[in-house]
Amino acid sequence: MTDPAEHRIEKAQLRRAPKYGVFLALGAALGIIAALILTFAFAGGQDATDESPFTGVTYTTTQVFGFVALICIPVGLALGGVVALILDRTVGRRTREVTVDHERHVEPPVGDED
Q1: How confident is the model over 14-36, as pLDDT tens digits?
Q2: Given phi > 0 = left and psi -120 to 50 = alpha, else beta, which region is 56?
Q3: For residues 99 and 78, what is the distance between their CA atoms, to the nearest angstrom?
Q4: pTM value?
Q5: Model pLDDT for residues 50-84, shown as the tens digit of each residue
Q6: 3-state DSSP call for residue 67?
Q7: For the chain, which terminal residue's Cβ has fewer other Cβ atoms within 10 angstroms, N or C?
Q8: Where are the transmembrane segments (predicted)?
């Protein structure tokens, strides 16, 4: 006995879209790199024994990196998201129509041997 199958050809719109997670991860990575650069570029030769002229507290390089990273990582995430949105809007306009072969295979119930 042959199984009943449904077979039809349809038209579909094909559109490419960027992977937002990749762009957000790259933005966060660029934020970390920017935080590292800013931490060591503007250290000004200060050691851990120098006090901050504004607060009178001594901050280690690791603490300064953490403070700067709190700003740079969200900015990097936002920039990565904006780049992904811009790419989605520009690349998303270009859609093309493709032909899709849609086939549905239905198996008879188990135990039905007629």
Answers
A1: 878 889 999 999 999 999 999 99
A2: left
A3: 38
A4: 0.66
A5: 677 788 888 888 888 999 999 999 999 999 999 99
A6: helix
A7: C
A8: 20-44, 64-87
